[in-house]
Amino acid sequence: MAINFKKMVVGRHAYAKAWKERGGGKILGYFETYFPEEIAYAAGVLPVRILAEHEPDLISDKWIYGACYPVKDMANQLLLGRMDYINGLVNTEGCQWMFNAYEVVTNNRPGLFNHYLFLPDYTNSATSKDVLRSELDVFKTKMEDWTGNSITDEALDNAIEIYNKNRVLLRRICELRRAQKPVITGSEYMHVLLADQIADKAEMNVILENYITELENREPGRDTLRLMLIGSETWDSGLEELIESSGGNVVIDELDNGTSYFWNNIYPQKDRLMAISLRYLDRPHNPVKDSNWRRRPEHIFRLAEDYHVDGAIIQKQIYCHLHGTDNYAVWRLFRERNMPFHYLERDMFVPKEETALRIEAFMNMLREGATRLAGWHKKALI
Fold it and tell me: Which helix (H) or strand (E) holds 329?
C-alpha cells in the first residue's frame, strides 16, 4: 500500500511520540535547515523540524510583533504545548525571525534543553570552515553531556551514511520530475519533503526506496506548463495545488526546505566534523548566506534550464526580509535572460481566489497561441 505523505505530515506529532515510546530516545526540535542533524542523530536523538500550522494564534503577538506569520505560529504551537514531546530546541544562525521564536520559547520553557549554533553568514571566507567546525565541536560536546551518549567516529559515520543516502533518494525523485510528463506532481513532492524533515531518516530511507519503485511503475502524468517555485520557505502544498488546478505543475524549486535541503552530500574524511562543516557551507544558500558573491541567482537559473521550465513563481512571505533584500538579483538575472516570472507576496494563508486568478493570468502568458509572449524566452535563446 502506497504511503500517504500528506497524512504523515498531519500526524507528525503522533509519529514523534510513537518513536519516543519505541526507543526511549530524546527528540530535538530545530528551525533552520542549516542545522547539522547528523551530529544529533549520532547521539541517538531524533531531529524534528518545527513546521508552521494553520491555527488561530492568540499568544505570539505578546512576544513577537511584526514577524512573518509562520514564525509566530511556530512560537504559538510550542508555547501551547502542541510539541510537548520535544526535549530540546536548537537554532542555527540564519533567519532572525526564527531566532526570535527560539528565544521566546526557551525563555518561557526554562526546562527545555537549548542551544544556539552559529553558522557563518560569509560561507566561503577563508576561515568559515574552521569557525563552523569549532561550533560543531561545541555542539557535539553539549549533545554528549545532554544525552549521556558518546558520539564516536563510528556513530558519526553511520549518521553521515544514512543522511547521504536520504539525500540521494530525494534527488532521484527530483530526476523523475525532469521528464516531459512527470510521474509526480509538485504538491505530492512537497508532502514527501515535509514528511522527510520530521521522520527518522533510517525509516524514511526504506519508505523512499519503495516509493521510488512505485513512481517508476506509474504511467506518465499530464503534459502541463512547467513551473519553478522560488523564495521563502513553504509549510504546506497549498500553492502547488493552486498551480495544478490551473493546469500547471511545479517541476523544481529552490527553497530552503526544498531542493536546497538535500542538494549536496557530505564527503567523508578522517575529520568527520570538518566534513560536515564543508557540506553545510557548500550547500545552495538562502539570501543571508549568499551575501558576498550572490551565487544564488546563477544556481536558480541552472535549475530552471535543467528542468526546462516555462516560467518561475517567486513567492515571498510578508516580513521575510531575507528574500526581500535578495529578489532584485534574481529579477535582474531573469530579465537579462528572458525568463518569464511572476512575483507573489503571500502570508501564511494563501487567498485562493485571488492567488488562483493571478497564477492563471501568468500561465496564460506562457501558453502557446495565447499571447505573443508565449515561448518568448525559449525562442530568444535559439
Answer: helix 327-336
Three-state DSSP state, 252: strand
Please state, in angstroms and rounded to a whole number, the distance separating the CA atoms of residues 280 and 261. 10
Residue 46, all three cell numbers: 531524533
pLDDT tens for each residue of the chain, 382 residues long: 578 999 999 999 999 999 999 988 999 999 999 999 999 999 999 999 999 887 777 788 888 877 888 888 999 999 999 999 999 999 999 888 899 999 999 999 989 999 999 999 999 899 999 999 999 999 999 999 999 999 999 999 999 999 999 999 999 999 999 999 999 999 999 999 999 999 999 999 999 999 999 999 999 998 899 999 998 888 888 899 999 998 999 999 999 899 999 999 999 999 999 999 999 999 999 988 887 778 899 999 999 999 999 999 999 888 888 888 888 899 999 999 999 999 988 776 677 888 888 999 999 988 875 554 555 556 554 4
Which residue is it, cell 508565449?
374
pTM of the full structure? 0.94
SS (H, E, C) 80-143: HCCCCCCCEEEEECCCHHHHHHHHHHHHHCCCCEEEEECCCCCCCCCCHHHHHHHHHHHHHHHH
d(CA 250, CA 1): 26
244, 187 contact by CB (below 8 A):
yes
